[in-house]
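Troubleshooting entry. Yesterday's outputs looked truncated, so today I'm pasting the complete records for two proteins to confirm everything comes through intact. If either block looks cut off, that's the bug. Protein one:
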Amino acid sequence: SGKGGVAYIMEAEHGFSLPRRLQVEFSKTIQAVAEDTGTEITPTAMWAEFQNLYLPAQPHLALRSHEIVMSDTNETTVTAQITVDGAATTVSGRGNGPIAAFVAGLRSALDIEFDVVDYHEHSMGRGADATAVAYVETTDAVNDTRWGIGTDPNTTTASLNAVLGAVERIRTRR
């Protein structure tokens, strides 16, 4: 089925419209699982692998709350309450928007080098009950690429969750 099959299943069955480079990354993961097991991967197994990789049930990094302040000079400050391996931590950073400010705060608070190089978002569902889905592509200090995915009814919160998802994958080398 390849990249197209994986992307089709993720969108048709779960509502995730994966950006092209994320399709390539996740398809490689599914291909490796298929080669390791010697069997065809079912849509259920594919979904479980997707959740494990991009939407873990017990993440090491989690957003608890955040506050965004924009100055009259278009500088944005984000102050976020997150948990890091179960411990409450406050992250604060400045940038030209919420994502840039959050990245600056995470770099400082977690002593980690990374940057967001691409961003996509879409809604899942319709109307007032829609959920935002954000995808961020990051690179780390050795230029390895990691994707993060975040969901939330609030588009900014979904974006910050996606950044945390990518940072978690950088930290755990998944």
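Protein two, checking that the full record survives here as well:
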Amino acid sequence: MKRKRRKGDKPEVRIGYLQEHSTCAVCLAGWREFGNWLEVHHIVGGSGRADLYQNLLTLCRSCHDEYHRGGRLTPGMLLTAKLESNPEGYDESVILKLLGRKELPERWQPVPIPQAFIEMRERR
């Protein structure tokens, strides 16, 4: 079944981002490492979703699932990962605009990535 394109959908932007950022921003997994594929995550999803470099982050399938299941990763941790993996692409004003806010909610404040993910990085 073909996915319906949403207004403003720009797959070429997501593909370009993934080509430039080819490791998971959280655990540093590469392409198909341990059978784990890389995916493009929208930092601000839902109605605020936009295919802008400032709103994109490369995640491996495991980290992406961990975030969306409400696991150990929060929006603030993903912003930290964005800052570390793509500092030139980090623009808090873009995130605030997409969120429709003047300041980041507490859950969105950049915070350290959990130690378990740092240990995964060190094993790579």
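Both blocks look complete. Sanity check on protein two: The beta strands are 38-42, 56-60.
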